[in-house]
Amino acid sequence: MDKNEIDLVYLWVDGNDPVWQNKRNAIIGCPEEKSAVNCEGRYADNDELKYSLRSVCMYAPWIRRIFIVTDNQIPAWLDTSDPRIRIVDHKEIMPGNSLPCFNSSVIEHFICRIPGLSERFLYANDDMYINRPVTPDMFFASDGLPIIRLNRRFLRKYYLLFNERFRKKPLSNYNTIVRNAADLVEKKFGVYIGGKAHHNIDSYLKSDCIRVEEMFKKELQPTFSNHVREPDDIQRSIYHYVALAEKRGHLRYVTQKESLRIHIQNPRHYEKLKKFNPMLFCMNDSEYAHDEDRRAASEFLQRRFPEKSKFEKD
Q: How far apart are CA 228 and CA 218, in angstroms?
């Protein structure tokens, strides 16, 4: 394994594309404004990927190759002739029963099958950004194992149980599918890992992902035909939870100085970004955001990353 080879994988969708919209609507219907699993914010494209790539060029030029996983789409501004960039269509890595897929929780299980992907790789959504210079050792330790960043959650297992059974408060889809992953790892290894993904760029070993898929093949296979998010999905946290259970990863609980999640509908979160100057930040769209919030986010990103990257057309 060449420790100097680290690739970056993105998921990307242009939810403004009418061809793609027709495909989605035929399977799961039009977006619902307040739906956590099928809202406009889950698919809207406001050039987030363009600005994320600008941040990579500025602060992580050592990344070897960048793979963009899409559903038969290519960003209009992207220079695909650049040898460091490759578009990967869903059909190239996913089985027929998964297609078409509008469920990132399923798509994420197949990124380790990208042909030519390096053993050590980073994974990001298109709304994740590097905010200051980073080096490989911020993502992988000297022994080659990934640094696993989680948000600390004390007694999370019991907190979720209390909310669900006693407060009669239903869990969100996200909390449900993360718990599914934690429960499987507890059953297999006897350890419950309650930390939640920090919702920012993460580190993985390809061989470990493939091994975990085989380890939980029986549990994962039925979920691969979930075209939209479902309660039985198993979130990608399972790869990190197994790595921690097997001591094949280094746990790091993050603070807002390292990893910050901005909810674009909350103007105060922009002040947090200025205050903490984190290593990584995410501009999270959701069912709570409106078009004016998205416009404000785009304007902010243009100010933050004004210079074109080498991956953009002239």
A: 20
Q: Please state whether beta strands 120-125 and 202-205 pair in parallel, antiparallel, or not at all (unpaired).
A: antiparallel
Structure tokens at 111: 């990124």
Sign of CA dihedral 88, 94, 100, 103: negative
Which residues are paired to 67 by β-bridges? 9, 86
- Cis peptide before 170, with omega less than 30 degrees from 0? no
Pairing mode of beta strands 128-130, 280-284:
antiparallel
CATH class, range 6-149+198-229+249-304: alpha beta
What's the number of CA atoms in the CB half-sphere (13 Å) around residue 292?
Answer: 2
pLDDT 10s digits, 47-61? 999 999 999 999 999
What is the token pair recorded at 23?
A: 């495909």
Bridge partner residues of 251 (DSSP): 148
- In angstroms, the CA 69 to CA 11 distance is 5
φ and ψ of 104, to 5 deg = -60, -30
Q: Are 49 and 75 in contact (CB under 8 A)?
A: yes
Token pair in block for residue 46:
């406001």
Q: Whole-angstrom Cα distance, residue 31 to residue 312?
A: 30
In angstroms, the Cα distances linking 162 to 12, 171, 172, 176, 193 are 36, 11, 14, 14, 17
pTM of this structure: 0.91
Half-sphere exposure in the Cβ direction for 64 (13 Å, CA) = 14
Phi, psi at residue 17, to the nearest 5°?
Answer: -75, 120
What span, in angstroms and rounded, lies between the C-alpha atoms of 172 and 229? 11
| pLDDT 10s digits, 61-93 | 999 999 999 999 999 999 999 999 999 999 999
CA distances from 143 to 62, 194, 209, 247, 293 (A): 19, 25, 18, 12, 43
